[in-house]
Design goal:
The structure holds two protein chains of two kinds.
Chain A (H helix, E strand, L loop, with lengths): L7 E2 L21 E2 L1 E9 L4 H14 L4 E6 L8 E9 L12 E4 L5 H6 L6 E5 L12 E5 L1 H8 L6 H16 L4 H11 L4 H21 L6 E2 L10 E4 H11 L4 E4 L6 H14 L10 E4 L3 H13 L4 E5 L1 H6 L1 H10 L3 E7 L16 H5 L9 E3 L4 H18 L2 E7 H5 L1 E4 L17 H7 L29 E3 L13 H21 L4 E3 L6 E6 L2 H16 L4 E5 L1 E2 L3 H8 L3 E6 L5 H9 L2 H4 L2 E5 L8 H12 L2
Parallel strand pairs in A: 2-9, 3-6, 6-7, 7-8, 11-12, 11-13, 13-14, 14-16, 15-16, 20-21, 20-23, 23-24
Antiparallel strand pairs in A: 1-24, 3-5, 4-5, 10-17, 15-22, 19-21
Helix pairs in contact in A: 1-4, 1-5, 3-4, 3-6, 4-6, 5-6, 7-8, 7-13, 9-11, 17-21
Chain B lengths: L34 H16 L6 E5 L3 H4 L9 E4 L5 H11 L4 E7 H5 L3 H10 L4 E6 L2 E2 L5 E2 L22 H8 L3 E6 L3 H13 L4 E6 L15 H7 E3 L1 E6 L14 E5 L5 E6 L9 H13 L3 E8 L6 H4 L12 H4 L3 H11 L1
Parallel strand pairs in B: 1-2, 1-3, 3-4, 4-8, 7-8, 9-13
Antiparallel strand pairs in B: 5-6, 7-13, 10-12, 11-12
Helix pairs in contact in B: 1-7, 3-5, 5-6, 6-9
The chains are: A alpha/beta, B alpha/beta.
């Protein structure tokens, strides 16, 4: 099965799916605004535009919708799936079951149709004759090539235009408003009138074919709602890029790596548009570095010299940044590092999602190090935490990691529009030449304010006492070289205290609790979508109420401790094999609370879905 | 309170009114006689004589004996002793943050030609306005005398081990990859090294100076090709390096037939008097040819091999605003609410 998956938890239980037995036709009671569509194609076939038009059309009909691209690490020719979920309840997690299949890839078509549940529906190329495999699924065979040839005289464009035929066919079948589709399509091809006309012709041809040849037999329909009014659609990487721009980023370095490249690519577009001054000069510098070692070195060099600097990478890049991360921690250098997580180890599944870099980042480097991580759970937080990261890194004088993932970063999500930042930029404790004259000098690594955060000066500060020597080796309060045991220990203890200061400054968790539930759930990042839906399933299907805390940063704030303390059992739900968030919590919690933690994990490369979480919780709770 | 004028000695000062003392650093912890200490002295002299405000200088280094040396000159300049082989990245970031600063990076042969080779060649490609000095002794000192990648074939360690791999010529590489001021000198050649360092300060672009700097503890014995004795016997200057800073009158005439006069970015003049027949510091091909021929003859060629004052530096190419990016005010780095509203509307 193409996108089949299993949830694995402590119990080792798994939910397997087998090809359904042929049964009688499903009931015809309409299923309104609550189903999923999967488009199975070949990568490089240009289906992205068609899928985007479908997603935007449903959104424009006011129906909550989410889209996910499940793609291979390949340029062209391998299977790709795009799933769209319409949910009147607003659920945006991946739905495990596919309701409506559009099978455009002959190679996976058989597998694809076998994966449908009874009562599903499928559009496919007529010649494939997929009906032979399933008589419990509504089949809509379409002569795609014939229709495409009729609307697209130019043979080399047919591969692309063919995709728009299925948009027309499904538009007819699920009652997608054609006016809305046309608007979405013309927006998609905004600058290419001819392409827009050609593609719109294909949509209409598909629509007309469906009108003439099909009688609606499946239950899946759309009806206009107003749940998306005023909302935006954006991917997490674009949101992070916007956050960085409004945080006033000035130095951006990167080395291309999926799925993080689009953070910087989109940031470059924004900066070129909004950060070039009237005289044509740039208030930013972007460097494509030779590797991630150089990318992070540049970030820390720039941070040391006073710039707001950042890089974006994924797991393999994080590994390469390890040595510099330690220097950044020990020499107390600012810099923001976005990690858009993907499946590892090594190259792993480079185009699939995971939350498995958490432990690596928390203690990245050698010696005693620990790092501040911000954990956005939606696109709005990608935007907001990008800004928070720059303030925190300069305030705390330590590298700050923003840990997102492929699912959040590369897929389109609905969101409330982003708010303009209210607070001015926090540039942290930087002494000017005037300050130095007033103070009569300074000690770079002295804890003056009791928060363990020292003061720094920037190169170029025109005062004879401004300079200091930055090094990764032993240094005392005055930044002088030392190997004295007490100096080293004092420094390391201050750094530990600084981490405690960080605990009070990082984003607080989001907590949903009624004060009565004995069972608590903890998750972070994109697991939130599945966990939110799973809580509703538990309540509706089993009458079980749960409390829920979503962690948004490391170090953990006090609320996280309180939440665990006030529950009998706490399930930590995450998208990795080794229960990494649970491990970090166990290290942080008192023993009597650490033993309350249980684990639900999902790590097959696909985004976590609610049903897998619910099934596992039901099993472990013995409901 | 009335004071009685006393005869205070009037220390020699530079054009900023600063005595050389203000350019000194901490006491060296390197071995007595180490070539690196002589290089630190020349760096002090060069910045003092050029009249560069010490606070306008950033010192950067990687790891190794060489990379410790920024602690021994110009204490009034910010300094960053980073990680092994990664000084180019740190320097790049620092200069992007503040392109108005003078930057000097000190590296070693291990720090550059082995662990740092990747960053080194990309630094050269970018022509970052940085003075990059390799304090080149052919061995790893802090780890007690292993060969580095600039050790010559046939060179012998104290333990008797013979190097059988070819040396990496950092000057040839730098010329080929895009550095715009490339030369080699010897820590023992005060006059040449000082003139080259002063010209380096006047240049805007990557200056790559490979300075042979004997390691008195691990590589100054018979059989070494990086010893004081070997250098004295095999050094072959390609040109005589003269330098006239922009704030001094050009009083000395020169013969255009035998001397190249290069006008530097700040208006200073670099005078390169030919000592070799085919010498042409404006041609990469000639420069590389001269280096390779000298190598075949067993000579260690020194002097300025290549200068290009026309090629834009990395910070020029990025077309940055005039002020340092690091301290731009919020009004110039955070776009307005209208911009966000416009973007939000487009995303609806």
């Amino acid at each position: 099965m193409a996108t089949g998956d299993v949830a694995l938890g402590n119990s080792g239980a798994s939910a397997t799916q087998t090809a359904p037995e042929p049964t009688s036709k499903a009931s015809q009671k309409p299923v309104v605004n609550d189903f999923s569509i999967q488009v199975a194609t070949v990568n490089g076939s240009g289906s992205q535009s068609a899928n985007s038009v479908l997603l935007r059309s449903i959104f424009a009909m006011g129906i909550p919708v989410s889209g996910k691209n499940l793609f291979p690490s390949n340029i062209a020719g391998l299977p790709t799936w795009y799933t769209i979920r319409a949910s009147k309840h607003g659920y945006v997690a991946r739905k495990k079951e596919i309701d409506f299949l559009i099978a455009m890839n002959a190679e996976t078509a058989r597998e694809d149709i076998l994966s449908l549940p009874t009562g599903g529906a499928a559009i496919y190329e007529e010649s494939q004759n997929l009906k032979q495999y399933r008589d419990d699924v509504t089949c809509y065979p379409v002569p795609f090539d014939k229709i495409t040839a009729a609307v697209c005289p130019e043979a080399k464009l047919r591969k692309l235009v063919k995709n728009m035929i299925y948009v027309g066919v499904i538009a007819k079948l699920i009652s997608l408003d054609m006016k809305v589709v046309e608007t979405a399509l013309r927006r998609q091809f905004a600058k290419k009138q001819k392409a827009a006309d050609l593609n719109w012709g294909a949509v209409e041809a598909g629509f007309n074919y469906a009108t003439e040849h099909f009688t609606k037999q499946d239950p899946f329909v759309l009806e206009r709602m107003h749940a998306t009014d005023g909302k935006i659609i954006i991917d997490g990487n674009a949101a992070a890029a916007l956050g960085a721009m409004f945080a006033g980023v000035t130095v951006v370095t990167w080395y291309p790596i999926t799925p993080s490249s689009s953070v910087v690519e989109q940031l470059i577009d924004y900066l070129k548009k909004y950060r070039v001054e009237p005289d044509g000069k740039a208030s930013f510098a972007v460097v494509q570095a030779e590797d991630e070692l150089a990318a992070v070195g540049m970030v820390l060099g720039a941070g040391w010299a006073g710039a707001r600097s950042m890089t974006a990478t994924s797991g393999p890049g994080i590994s390469l940044m390890a040595e510099f991360a330690g220097l950044g921690y020990f020499a107390e250098l600012p810099g923001v590092i976005f990690d858009i997580q993907r499946v590892g180890p090594s190259t792993g599944l480079p185009t699939r999602t995971a939350q498995a870099d958490l432990l690596t980042i928390a203690y990245l480097s050698h010696g005693d190090t620990k790092h501040v991580m911000l954990l956005p759970g939606n696109v709005k937080e990608c935007y907001e935490f990008a800004q928070a990261a720059f303030d925190l890194t300069e305030r705390l004088q330590t590298p700050v990691f923003v840990v997102s993932d492929l699912d959040l970063g590369m897929n389109n999500w609905m969101s409330e529009p982003f708010q303009y930042p209210e607070k001015p930029l926090d540039r942290g404790k930087v002494l000017t030449a005037e300050d130095l004259t007033r103070l009569g000098g300074f000690a770079r690594y002295k804890d003056v304010d009791g928060d363990a955060i020292p003061y720094r000066t920037l190169p170029g500060t025109e005062h004879p006492q401004a300079a200091y020597f930055t090094r990764g080796s032993g240094h005392n309060e005055k930044a002088l070289y030392t190997e004295r045991p007490d100096d080293y220990q004092n420094l390391m203890e201050r750094l530990a205290r600084k981490f405690e200061t960080a605990r009070t400054l990082v984003p607080h968790p989001v907590i949903v609790q009624d004060g009565k539930s004995k069972v608590g759930l903890i998750a972070f990042g994109t697991s939130d979508f599945a966990v939110t839906e799973s809580r509703d399933q538990l309540k509706k299907e089993y009458g079980v109420e749960t409390d829920y805390l979503r962690v948004r940063a490391f170090p953990f704030t006090k609320e996280v401790h309180d939440f665990v303390a006030s529950h009998e059992r706490v399930y930590v739900i995450e998208q990795n094999r080794d229960a990494q968030l649970q491990s970090l919590l166990k290290l942080d919690l008192p023993v009597e609370d650490a033993v309350k933690l249980r684990s639900v994990r999902h790590f097959n490369g696909l985004p976590m879905d609610a049903r897998s979480v619910t099934d596992e919780l039901v099993l472990q709770e013995g409901i | 309170m009335a004071t009685t004028p006393t005869a205070t000695p009037n220390p020699k000062i530079n054009r900023l009114g600063l005595p050389i003392l203000e350019y000194r650093g901490g006491k060296t912890t390197l071995c007595a006689g180490c070539g690196h200490n002589a290089i630190s002295e020349r760096i002090i002299d060069a910045f003092y004589e050029m009249g560069v405000q010490p606070e306008r200088v950033m010192k950067l280094s990687g790891i190794g004996c060489s990379s410790k040396s920024p602690a021994y000159f110009m204490s009034r300049a910010h300094s960053f002793n980073s990680v092994h082989g990664r000084m180019p990245a740190v320097a790049t970031g620092a200069l992007l943050a503040n392109k108005t600063m003078n930057a000097i990076g000190v590296s070693g042969d291990g720090d550059t030609a082995s662990i740092g080779m990747g960053q080194f060649i990309h630094l050269m490609r970018r022509n970052l306005p940085l003075i990059y000095i390799i304090e080149d002794n052919g061995v790893y000192g802090l780890t007690k005398g292993q060969f580095s990648a600039t050790a010559d074939i046939g060179s012998k360690l104290k333990t008797g081990v013979i190097n059988d791999l070819p040396a990496i010529d950092t000057c040839t590489l730098a010329i080929q990859l895009g550095a715009t001021f490339v030369g080699r000198s010897f820590s023992g050649d005060k006059k040449q090294l000082l003139a080259m360092l002063k010209a380096a300060i006047a240049h805007k672009g990557t200056v790559m100076l490979d300075v042979i700097s004997p390691c008195v503890t691990f590589n100054d014995h018979e059989g070494s090709t990086k010893s004081y004795k070997y250098m004295q016997e095999h050094e072959e200057a390609i040109s005589e390096v003269g330098f006239v800073p922009h704030f001094e009158d050009i009083a000395v005439d020169y013969d255009p037939g035998s001397t190249y006069d290069v006008r530097m970015h700040d208006g200073s003049h670099l005078r390169l008097r030919k000592l070799h027949e085919d010498y042409n510091p404006t041609s990469r091909v000639t420069a590389v040819k001269a280096l390779m021929e000298a190598h075949e003859k067993g000579e260690i060629l020194t002097g300025v091999f290549y200068v290009d004052t026309a090629k834009p530096s990395f910070t020029d190419m990025l077309n940055l605003v005039d002020e340092p990016l690091a301290t731009l005010p919020q009004e110039r780095t955070r776009p307005s609410k209208q911009v966000l509203d416009e973007i939000m509307t487009r995303l609806q």
